[in-house]
Specification:
By secondary structure, the chain is α/β, with parallel strands linked by helices. It is built from six helices and eight strands.
């Protein structure tokens, strides 16, 4: 068998190779065949140099201060009548304290302004300018511990407030001092006192004594009453 002639091989190559009609189309096809990564040149990348001067804060100039005075002497005292007298702002300074004001609270009692001393662990009930020894736990088997119920609330029987039924006019507010700390007042006790037309405020005994002295001086002993347990009682 004879090999193909050179003319036959040339004709076969011409029929197999793509025929580009124009040089522009061939150039476009050649450019599309190039990889996208090859199109990126080093000239298209832009590098920014960090300038440390841009982040440097502006220097603040300290404010000029006046020189420190050599002495504390501010000159002679003012004799003007318009000068404020802070001592005159105490509007209760010239009002005498009530005789039932509490001078001292003790672990086992109280000392009043009129010289009366309540000792022996008794509480005190102050109403209408009078002072009474108060034992709200009397008659209970648990004694003083019975004043705190199972829910941790301060609760005493209704007869402990019986003195409020005897006075008239009744006080506007009753301050209850609960010994060393404060316990929440039981809803039953609060409801009973409020039913008598008396508001209730609960505090520890030290603050209750100070509150009573202030309000009784300002509003009078007929408006403010107090029932307090000695500070030695700590509850359960």
């Amino acid at each position: 068998m004879h090999p193909p002639s050179p003319q036959l091989l040339r004709a076969l190559r011409t029929s197999i190779s793509p025929n580009c009609s124009t040089s522009a189309i061939c150039t476009q096809l050649a450019s599309r065949s190039i990889s996208p990564l090859a199109r990126v040149t080093s000239s298209s990348l832009t590098f920014h140099r960090y300038n440390s001067n841009d982040a440097r804060p502006t220097r603040m100039i300290p404010r000029a201060h006046s020189a420190k005075p050599s002495s504390r002497d501010r000159g002679p005292p003012s004799k003007e009548d318009t000068q404020t007298d802070f001592g005159a702002l105490n509007v209760l300074g010239n009002i005498p304290a009530p005789t039932t004001a509490i001078d001292a609270t003790l672990d086992t009692g109280f000392h009043l302004d009129n010289g009366v001393k309540i000792t022996g662990g008794d509480g005190v009930f102050l109403v209408g300018g009078e002072a009474f020894a108060w034992r709200p736990w009397q008659g209970a088997e648990a004694g003083k511990n019975s004043m705190v119920n199972k829910k941790g609330q301060f609760e005493v029987p209704e007869h402990a407030w019986g003195i409020l039924d005897l006075v008239w006019p009744r006080p506007d507010m009753l301050i209850i001092g609960m010994g060393e700390t404060v316990f929440p007042l039981s809803p039953e006790t609060k409801r009973h006192v409020n039913s008598l037309g008396v508001r209730v405020e609960v505090l520890d005994t030290r603050n209750a004594a100070a509150q009573f002295n202030l309000l009784a001086t300002e509003r009078g002993v007929s408006e403010i009453a107090a029932a307090m347990i000695p500070i030695g009682w700590k509850g359960r």
